[in-house]
Amino acid sequence: MNIGILGYGTVGRNVHKLLGAVDGVSVKYVLEQRGKLTESFMTPDPELILSDPDIELIVDALPGIHPSYEYMKEALSHGKHVVSSNKAAICFGFTELHELAKENHVSLLYEASCGGGIPIIEEILRIGALDDISRVSGILNGTSNYMLWQMDKAGMSYEDALRDAQRLGYAEADPTADVSGFDVKNKIIILSSLAFDGYVEKDIPMIGIEAITKEMMDGLRAQQKAVKLMGIAVKEGDRYALAVTPVIVSSLSLEANVPLNFNIVSFEGNYVGEVKLYGQGAGGDPTADAVVRDILKVARGDAACYERHFTKTLAYDPSLLRGRCHVGDRVLEDAVLAEASAQAIREQVPFAFEFNA
Amino acid sequence: MNIGILGYGTVGRNVHKLLGAVDGVSVKYVLEQRGKLTESFMTPDPELILSDPDIELIVDALPGIHPSYEYMKEALSHGKHVVSSNKAAICFGFTELHELAKENHVSLLYEASCGGGIPIIEEILRIGALDDISRVSGILNGTSNYMLWQMDKAGMSYEDALRDAQRLGYAEADPTADVSGFDVKNKIIILSSLAFDGYVEKDIPMIGIEAITKEMMDGLRAQQKAVKLMGIAVKEGDRYALAVTPVIVSSLSLEANVPLNFNIVSFEGNYVGEVKLYGQGAGGDPTADAVVRDILKVARGDAACYERHFTKTLAYDPSLLRGRCHVGDRVLEDAVLAEASAQAIREQVPFAFEFNA
């Protein structure tokens, strides 16, 4: 099978490297910027790749929504399979891209878009084929977890933790997507759509970690608690709710003990019970590993069992997500997260959520 | 596809129930004891099931090595696929059963044998198809973890914790397999064979939790540590070692915070890094869920990607597993686990292992 790789950053390069050891898959073209065309397989022309009838599968390893979204649409329209690591573009065009893949009888796989090498999507689909999944939640952003961990364990200030994350390459020069919750939002939308087998609302409550202070953490630690940035999605019957928010958890929970830039995701099936997956949620090698596993599913003809049809009509009902809401210095018991977090934004005070016991 | 179920305890009954919602698979016979034949599909005659040419797949949901092992051999010889939840029989006949499946071009799947509904084997095979896995370890027995948890958190004595586990149905009247480490031994042998892609030694160091006292736990807690019964397997090049032993872990580790009768397993791939899976390691519904997922792999024709060929010739080298060994009151730094644990058995003193920092 001939493939084309769009983008030759850390992920694209690592995918190319890993494919070197895989029989039956060869990289025909790599899309690269005009000034960086150092190899004969590199081209700056996306059309050359997207319209080449020899190429059966396109790897999207570009960052950001555009032009990834347009390239994926074109590839699917031309009957090519698409494997993507780009959560922003996958989330943005979730419905349209899936419909296009279905119309053209090709696969659209994106394990690497959520949780790097951790096989979260594989397991949600496997378990979801048999179970009714009623909850997905987790620590889905390594950068913000690294910062919270350093604030909690090394006593760093928010600013020092951010500089430390930038120094290690975990955070971008502009860290907004990581600290504001936007990255987590993309991921929880993708994961809950797959878990609940329906297209979900994208305009959801989103609170980041910008307002979390070392003092708040010290106070929580004294109560045997910790705070983590989490994506949460719950379903009851055909109603569901989702949110991105700082969550206060027991210091004895697995979540509280997820260190550094690691991720954890939980889901709850009616037969299997609670399952959690933990690992490196980012980085070139783990992410490339997930991309190549997706390519192998297509190459070996077993991608069909990793398809969802989003057949359920689900109703967005934010009132399903309720619990103890911390709005500034006040604690609202059994309040609706969407309302309490909106109030915190209006009043410009910090917000955190705690599940009802 | 017609299937036959051997055994109608919690697992067999739950498999039957779950299959009710699955198209294309029907249960033709269930093997049941003579006095319990309440339904027309039940028979006490294994030959009726194992030699029926209509039956393409046999579910082994019996306990213990015999006659499960013999039934599985016969089913495979007759060209039937086998799905088993029976770790004792799978571990006992690991090589022979796999060779038979290969000769007869049928599948032998046993996700439910290790970790109930947690998709441990699936993920080891998926990740192992691309990565070199150098380590598998984990809390693989819910009963012993429940007892240690109650001793640590509720201050119970070993005897009270055992009675409590028996009252809840977690421990058998004879709890030997759980507390002695034998159950974990079966599982770590199965998991490491799959992870390392070779048949492994079965005569390995095995220490259970019988000698662990509340006092030992109190001392560890004061040092921010905890003790957990774990299976461990490591590989370096073509050499490997395995063991079952109480392991002393940091109270900040995920392992230390695995509550009640839950399980966790970690593995380390050269690209994906460290991945951990957590969930209910036993129970009728989770285990049946895993059995049915295996049946679906066969029914949908994608079982081939869940096969290992055990092509690697591996050398058992116990000296690979070394660390801080607690032998009674003494601490041996950087000692070989196999030697130190044998010494503890000879001297009839407690043993625990701690990884080198």
Show the helix and strand layout.
The structure is a homodimer of 357-residue chains.
Chain A lengths: L1 E5 L3 H10 L6 E6 L10 E2 L2 H5 L4 E6 L7 H10 L3 E4 L2 H6 L1 H10 L4 E2 L10 H9 L4 E7 L2 H12 L4 H10 L8 H4 L2 H15 L17 H9 L2 E12 L2 E12 L11 E8 L3 E8 L3 H16 L15 E2 L5 E6 L2 E7 H11 L3 E5 L2
Parallel strand pairs in A: 1-2, 1-4, 2-3, 4-5, 5-6, 9-12
Antiparallel strand pairs in A: 7-8, 7-10, 8-9, 10-11, 13-14, 13-15
Task: Write up this protein.
Chain A has 357 residues and is α/β, with parallel strands linked by helices. Chain A folds into two domains: 2-117 and 284-306, Rossmann fold, CATH 3.40.50; 120-280 and 321-355, 2-Layer Sandwich (Dihydrodipicolinate Reductase, domain 2). Chain A is built from 13 helices and 15 strands. Chain A has helices at 10-19, 46-50, 68-77, 87-92, 94-103, 120-128, 142-153, 158-167, 176-179, 182-196, 214-222, 284-299, 337-347, and strands spanning 2-6, 26-31, 42-43, 55-60, 81-84, 108-109, 133-139, 225-236, 239-250, 262-269, 273-280, 315-316, 322-327, 330-336, 351-355. Chain A has a six-stranded parallel β-sheet with strand order 3-2-1-4-5-6, with helices on both faces. In chain A, helix 7 packs across helix 8. The longest helix of chain A is centred in the last third of the chain and has 16 residues, at 284-299. The first copy, chain A, is globular and about 60 Å long. The model of chain A has no long low-confidence stretch (mean pLDDT 95). The interface between A and B is large, with 43 and 43 residues.
